[in-house]
Fold this protein.
Amino acid sequence: MQTQYDRSSRQRRNLLSALFVLLLLLTALSCAREEAVLLNVTGTTSVEGEAEVLVVTFSLSTKEGVIQTSVEASDLRSRWTLSASPDKSGLFTIGPLSMGVGVALPEGEYTLQAMLDDGQLLSERFSVRRP
């Protein structure tokens, strides 16, 4: 013969087990954040006055505010570090970047790095050619 105590004890254990499983599920879902990706990275050069300049544009697969970025040329001597924020359409623009008056930008592969608020460091290569 089952007592009232046995039934209520079993119901309490079942309820606690169900709550534990639900808590585990919610924790797993909250930790699963979409991985961000740099998209449509382009570098465009032009001449402004007597200086050659580079403008880099890109977008992100996730919505972000102001991020820290760096652009480095393949010569490993040319590097710019600055903040970037998206426009209304989500496009980030960095630049104009220049080596100075009369100094040409190195042609070749450049690397864009972006650090997001959560500490993710994204990196993408792009080519720079003279106009």
